[in-house]
């Protein structure tokens, strides 16, 4: 073999190894970010589950003081059940908007019933809910930051090539559509 051909083959092998190394590195980084997105979603799910578990206790407590406010209490429970059964990020976002709205109605009831507002059990539940709302807001922000990294990685070059080859799809953000629902539910005592 001629020395020129050997040098050309060595150069092609080195280029191929570099391309494969970059490809493997890029693929692994996409998988890593995708797993972070999944983890971030599960963190939101944990906080939402705590919220869902707290809502029936809150409703039962309010029911004791405001039994004739059945419509408001029923809406809260229906919103909770809708959120529990949400399947996608978009459905979950919509359900969370609904829960936030109904919880505000529930809190408005406490203003009308001073005995309820002074009840220690109700106060403890509201404190727990306040903590959960803060955790949800943090988890939601972390999830959206991670989704942004993932979407950026698969939309930019050369990630877009790997995204097409391995069928990576953009992830949905956890969005709040109602402006008043963007912050955590305000819990007042």
Reported for the largest beta sheet, the result is:
none
- Overall outline: rod-shaped
Give the H and E element order.
HHHHHH
Percentage of residues in helical conformation: over 70%
SSE map:
Elements: H1 3-65, H2 70-84, H3 89-112, H4 114-118, H5 120-155, H6 159-166
Describe, in plain words, how this protein is organized in 3D.
It is a single chain. It contains six helices and no strands. The chain has helices at residues 3-65, 70-84, 89-112, 114-118, 120-155, 159-166. Helix 1 runs antiparallel to helix 2 and helix 2 (70-84) packs antiparallel against helix 3 (89-112). The chain is rod-shaped. The mean pLDDT is 88.
Short description:
The chain has 189 residues and is an all-alpha fold.
Keywords:
189 residues
């Amino acid at each position: 073999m001629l020395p020129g051909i050997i040098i050309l083959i060595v150069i092609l092998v080195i280029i191929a190894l570099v391309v494969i190394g970059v490809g493997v590195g890029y693929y692994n980084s996409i998988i890593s970010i995708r797993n972070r997105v999944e983890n971030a979603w599960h963190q939101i799910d944990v906080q939402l589950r705590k919220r869902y578990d707290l809502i029936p206790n809150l409703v039962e407590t309010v029911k004791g003081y405001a039994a004739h406010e059945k419509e408001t209490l029923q809406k809260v429970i229906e919103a909770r059940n809708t959120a529990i059964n949400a399947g996608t990020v978009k459905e979950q976002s919509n359900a969370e908007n609904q829960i936030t709205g109904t919880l505000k109605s529930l809190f408005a009831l406490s203003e009308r019933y001073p005995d309820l507002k002074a009840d220690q059990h109700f106060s403890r539940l509201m404190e727990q809910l306040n903590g959960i709302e803060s955790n949800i807001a943090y988890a939601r922000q972390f999830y959206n930051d991670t989704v942004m990294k993932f979407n950026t990685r698969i939309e930019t070059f050369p990630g877009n090539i790997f995204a097409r080859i391995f069928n990576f799809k953009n992830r949905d953000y956890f969005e709040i559509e109602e402006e008043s629902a963007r912050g955590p539910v305000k819990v007042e005592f």
